[in-house]
Amino acid sequence: MSSSAAAGPIRLVDRDPAISAAELASELTPPPQFEHASFDSYRPDPDFPSQQAALDRLKEFAGAWRAAQRPGGFFSRRRPTRIELPGVYLDGGFGVGKTHLLAALWHVASGPKYFGTFIEYTALVGALGYAGALQLLRGARLICIDEFELDDPGDTMLMTRLLGELMASGTRVAATSNTPPNALGEGRFAAADFLREIHALSSNFETLRIDGLDYRRRDTDGRAAVVEGDGGVERMAASLAARGHRVSLDGFDALVAHLATVHPSKYVKLIDGIEIIALEGVRELHDQNAALRLVAFIDRVYDAEVPIIQNGVPLDGVFDDEMMAGGYRKKYLRAMSRMIALTTGELPPHD
Q1: Does a structural domain hold residue 108?
Q2: Which terminus of the chain has a lower count of CB atoms within 10 Å, N or C?
Q3: How do residues 118-127 score in pLDDT, each as one tens digit?
């Protein structure tokens, strides 16, 4: 909280954030909810032995990586019990702990190391250019990619090329996919799809299947919470700001338009220091580019654990039927689940 917040809510549309390459790199770490994730804190479901098997294999993966860093030369190292591939892919449904395991692996690795979503890495390339992103990431001992997405052939080819160059220089890579229930079949990317799309790299990846139920038991059929009454959101935002909370207040259309002027790699800076986001006049979107920018923005808000208050159409209803029937369906479903969580969580007391 800040004493300056008492002046009233902040407008995100007034912010024009800048971010350096060093800042972009510093943001490539696990989100706050996985800041202390470890192998020991992962709780495998005994009803699904593949969870324990994946945990054990990732420990081996981490152990082999650490062994490779030990001094002493060839004869001081134990011969590996299996062929070690430089990449590992966690193939599983929604909420089985893939991100927890990915973050745990990142935490035990020594640097330089990076952790980000597929969207964050493609945004990095967009901000720095391919050569700039390659230069930044080159030399990394480990790169973790959460929520690898296969629905954009251009982005998939870009990431395949980037990872190919990095892995050829000794970088190890761990990746997950993340598809909400009812999106595709079992609610997962098939490992075969992942390996087919990254065909140039598929021989470098070992696939670990993780079965199980969503430990959060998220209900994607729920709805985002809406503040009722004219002026309700504005009054709540003003009350929270008067109590010293850093609150933003924007019209939905204005924010969506502003997102088009800010590179997605800078969205994390757009919400820097914000404790609560207030949106007025949420409505259904019909522009897919605007919808995808909103998805990227919500991902950053979710990672930062910033709650949202809103009126108008429930946030999870902003994607029209055509979008929900299209190729980006899984992205929208994930965003809907996150928007429900962000609008139904606990808020500080207000008048």
Answers
A1: yes
A2: C
A3: 888 988 888 8
